[in-house]
């Protein structure tokens, strides 16, 4: 499969795009269109830390909402500095 290149809003540069949409709905489409594989990998590491530190349970709807909010802040916050 050929990789696709996108402008990653997280990294603020051209980067390899994801192979498929990993999150559902409009937010998933936004992530697929504007967040690179590298940036998503950085989020996955942060996600693991948050789940462990906050003792989130992914079976709990409220915990999933908390994690989604953190994901949006992490991936799309203009104030965040990512290297």
Describe this structure in words.
It is a single chain. The protein has 83 residues and is mainly alpha-helical. The chain has one domain (5-76): YggX-like. The chain contains three helices and two strands; from the N terminus they run ββααα. Helix 2 packs across helix 3 (61-76).
Summarize the model shown.
This protein is mainly alpha-helical and 83 residues long. It contains three helices and two strands.
Question: Which keywords apply here?
Answer:
83 residues; mainly alpha; YggX-like; two-stranded antiparallel ribbon; 3 helices
Distance between the termini: 28 Å
Helix amount: 40-55%
Q: Examine the secondary-structure arrangement and name the CATH architecture.
A: Orthogonal Bundle
Q: Assign the CATH class.
A: Mainly Alpha
Mean pLDDT: 92
Give the overall form: elongated
Low-confidence stretches: none
Number of domains: 1
Give the DSSP E fraction (strand runs of 2 or more residues). 5-15%
Our count of helices gives: 3
Pfam families: Iron_traffic
GO cellular component, one term: cytosol
InterPro entries: Fe_traffick_prot_YggX (IPR007457), Fe_traffick_prot_YggX_sf (IPR036766)
Protein name: Fe-S cluster protector protein
List the topology elements:
Elements: E1 5-8, E2 13-16, H1 25-34, H2 37-53, H3 61-76
Helix pairs in contact: 2-3
């Amino acid at each position: 499969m050929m990789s696709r290149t996108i402008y990653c809003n997280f990294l603020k540069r051209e980067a390899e795009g994801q192979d498929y949409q990993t999150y559902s709905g409009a937010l998933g489409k936004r992530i697929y269109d504007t967040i690179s594989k590298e940036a998503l990998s950085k989020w996955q590491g942060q996600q693991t830390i948050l789940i462990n530190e906050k003792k989130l349970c992914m079976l709990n709807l409220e915990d999933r909402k908390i994690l989604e909010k953190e994901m949006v802040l992490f991936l799309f916050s203009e104030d965040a500095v990512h290297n």
